[in-house]
Design brief:
The protein is of the alpha+beta class and 286 residues long. It has 3 helices and 17 strands. Strands 5, 6, 9, 11, 16 and 17 form a 6-stranded mixed sheet that branches. The longest helix has 20 residues.
Length: 286
Amino acid sequence: MRCSVVPSSLSARRGRFQRGSHGVSAAPRRRRVLAGPGLLPSAPLSPGAQPGPRRCEDAAVTPRPSRRRLLLTGLPIAGLLLLGACTDEHADAGGDGPRPGGRPGAGTTAPSDEPSSVCPVSGVRIRALGTNAAMGLRALGLELTNCGTADYPLYGYPSLRLLDADGTPIPVQVIEGAKGITSGFDAPPRPLTLRPGERAGAAVLWRNLVTDSTVVATSGEALEVASSTGRARQAVELDGPIDLGNTGRLGVSAWKPAEPTTPAPPPAPPQPSGAPSGATTPDPRV
């Protein structure tokens, strides 16, 4: 909105009445708003014209929304708030919300497997040490640890059971020693007594050979080991299948004391970089 100076001739003309179809009526009044101290002329004055009264240009008036429209506009917001309240009540009543006594924000986790540090009821823990393969000969190391609190007597050979991928036992011939498979593993067993924390070792041997094309090759996916026949077996983790080919034979050595591990020597203390620059060498004649 801005105000300007209007010539007197134009001012007089704007003051006349307008004639309508039903008689003489005054021109409709428009709302006038002063823009402020900065008044600029809307049109230049012609030479010799006298300045007339100031007029203000009509400003567009923004209509105010009716109260009914405001009430209707607020309905969706109220509906959303009501819907949220219903959702919260449903969650508290038995939805997926937290249960009483539960920790907020905690998800449901599946039960974890039994950690390897837990000692079995038998008092010993058996694990596989990995497979060594060379020239078709396979050797799988076994380690038995007395994890209990009492001495554990041990004698003889490990008891083995080979399983397929479905957990079905595979019929194989287990040879005590390695006769017919390799040499050097036929040492006879001797009685052992493992104190708590002591270990014993053995080895499982086989060859991946296919000598008869009419016999289906055998490959075991799991192995269960007991300290001796008649004792509880434990599943050991393999780093690969036990591929027997069609030999159908497994050799196993007798238990023997595990090699003691030699602790690493402590690191030597750091040597001084050199004598101080101000030090003097003593005279041997003194």
